[in-house]
Design a protein that fits this description.
TIM Barrel, binds magnesium ion, globular, eight-stranded parallel beta barrel, 11 strands, 44% helix, alpha/beta
Length: 280
């Protein structure tokens, strides 16, 4: 496989990420797919969908889970609503995550990703061990499917994440590294964090952001690739250093306006192509 194929975070029907036709028009060879709605996670849809992808010349690299009721409005809302951390929805969402993994298997995909939610750094908090347990449950389900489970990074420090990975202790648990999230959530300098967790990184989001005035208390701002504080050249050099040669998947959290997506993500692709030629 080519080193660092370009990718975008895309969706079929769930409203997050770039439309597949836009991805195709941009000439992107790979996507991470936001899991489609429950109604469309069927063998018949999987077959139709694979046929469509083949026609578009697009390969899926990771299927990402996501749930109704999640809100990224601000840091407290994220902590309250996202992933498998909130106790009230945990059992139902865990079930759904396993269904998403099974759908990914129908598509022949060996990696499933998720933003697990805001994991407390206090390992004595009962919530911590509950989240460890539920993560093991999802890992073991994925393992039986022959899949890896990739945790989206961002709201933990590198040390907190390493502690959590060690505590879950599963050999199919890896990291989807998102450098911008570390800035947006104020959880630490992303390049140093990438070096620390590098051995676990199996997929990445190419996303950019600017630090908030009070990092960790208020959101930083997500901005087009290359316009924020990540430093894309340094990011790619560090990926090279840790031996990562997988897809460079652009994630841009803007509304699904095809024209705007095409322009902004098109510029992001050009930037990555330029850096690939220089570094890769
Ligand atoms: Mg991300």
């Amino acid at each position: 496989m080519e080193k660092w194929p370009i990718g975008v975070f895309a969706s079929i029907d769930a409203g997050l990420g770039v439309d597949l036709d836009v991805a195709h028009e941009l000439g992107v060879p790979t996507v991470q797919l936001h899991a489609p709605k429950k109604e469309t996670r069927t063998p018949q849809h999987a077959e139709q969908f694979l046929a469509r992808l083949e026609k578009l010349g697009i390969r899926i690299t990771v299927v990402f889970g996501g749930f109704e009721g999640e809100s990224y409005a601000d840091i407290p809302a994220t902590a309250r609503t996202v992933g498998l951390v909130p106790p009230g929805t945990r059992a139902e969402r865990t079930r759904e995550m396993k269904e998403i993994a099974d759908f990914a298997k129908l598509l022949g995909i060996d990696a499933v990703g998720l933003h697990l939610g805001f994991i407390t750094h206090d390992t004595t908090d009962p919530i911590y061990s509950q989240v460890v347990d539920v993560t093991r449950e999802v890992c073991d389900h994925c393992k039986a499917n022959g899949q890896r489970f990739h945790l989206e990074t961002g709201q933990e420090s590198a040390e907190g994440l390493l502690q959590f990975l060690a505590d879950v202790d599963r050999d199919n648990l890896f990291v989807n590294f998102d450098p911008a999230n570390m800035i947006l959530y104020g959880s630490g300098e992303p390049i140093g964090a990438l070096r620390k967790v590098g051995r676990y990184v199996r997929s990445v989001h190419c996303k950019d952001g600017k630090w908030a005035e009070k990092p960790g208390h208020e959101w930083g701002a997500e901005v087009p690739l290359g316009e924020g504080d990540v430093g894309m050249e340094n990011f790619l050099r560090t990926l090279d250093e840790i031996g990562y040669d997988g897809p460079l998947t652009i994630e841009r959290e803007i509304p699904q306006e095809p024209q705007r997506q095409k322009e902004e993500i098109g510029r992001g692709i050009k930037l990555l192509e330029k850096l690939k030629a220089k570094i890769g």
